[in-house]
């Protein structure tokens, strides 16, 4: 089974990667004893696109650990806000504010618009880099609607506000199995896995 360092300190995101990959890939955390840190890893996610940030993380974590890396950058894009917060989703309203405050800020920005127009999507861009070739990118999206109230206790980030018409519930109300049927990260991971298997054939 291939082993990949997941370029994140977000334990919720790491757990989600392993759930999506199942028995196909072993996802390693930066704290995994199998890994030997070669140098400190510090990434400033100041790119203007998901691709830039995913690439920065993939290169930095590879330098730090000299291991095959899968990095992602993802965000929520609200149509009435012109696609914002987008690449700034995790820092929307400030670096350290609690998520409920971030949700309130997003809803306040959307308040002037008709709720029928509160369509949105999650987008995920993955970057794989093993130090042998060029970085390779994969992308996934999933469509939904922003809800007025947070619902559900699963997931993380904006999941409690993101209602999936397909699932008929928010991502935070969905079980991991339900969410991984169509989430942006799952779509991108399946694309990666298909490509990765083809390179090993």
Structure description:
The chain has 201 residues and is of the alpha/beta class. The chain has a single domain, classed as Alpha-Beta Complex (Maf protein). The protein contains five helices and seven strands; from the N terminus they run βαβαβαββββαα. A seven-stranded mixed beta sheet has the order 2-1-3-4-5-6-7. Helix 4 packs across helix 5. It is globular. The model has no long low-confidence stretch (mean pLDDT 94).
Q: Outline the low-pLDDT stretches.
A: none
Mean pLDDT across all amino acids: 94
> What is the rounded Rg?
17 Å
Largest sheet: 7 strands, mixed
Structural class: alpha/beta
Name the strands of the widest sheet in spatial order.
2-1-3-4-5-6-7
Strand content range: 15-25%
Q: Which CATH architecture? A: Alpha-Beta Complex
How many strands in all?
7
Q: Give the helix proportion (percent range).
A: 25-40%
* String of helices and strands: EHEHEHEEEEHH
Shape annotation: globular
**How many distinct helices?**
5
CATH class: Alpha Beta
Distance between the termini: 14 Å
Total domain units = 1
CATH T-level topology: Maf protein
